[in-house]
């Protein structure tokens, strides 16, 4: 499946958002869970929403506000892992239509971090198909 330029841009922005969370000192698990299960990801899941025009810094502020202040400190994943995770989560939604919260229930931070070494070199569709195939088996 080929994404249009807007779809690829949204994947890239979300990847950069995940990277930015580490730059801001957030623990990866807390950030990703707050985002994937929160209103900002739900807005990005819509066919069109104003959040799709925001950059990663503004999106981060939105998520931080929604969470009442994301916890700082703790374990942050490497930036390459975070970028891939953010990109693939958004790609997954665009590829399957599943909501971010359903996607996160299938593949949380621990699953994605453990999948990264073997999956980040796969075609995006193949990575998502394999992650979906793991549903309920973990």
Question: What can you tell me about this protein's structure?
Answer:
The chain is mainly α and 138 residues long. Helices cover 67% and strands 0% of the residues. Helix 1 (5-23) packs across helix 4 (56-66) and helix 1 runs antiparallel to helix 5 (79-96).
Strand content: under 5%
The computed structural class is mainly alpha
- One letter per element, helices H and strands E, the order comes to HHHHHHHH
Sequence stretches where pLDDT stays below 50 over 5 or more residues: none
**Which value, in Å, is the CA radius of gyration?**
14 Å
The largest β sheet comes out as:
none
Find the count of extended strands (DSSP E, 2+ residues).
0
What features would you highlight for this structure?
138 residues; mainly alpha; 8 helices; 67% helix
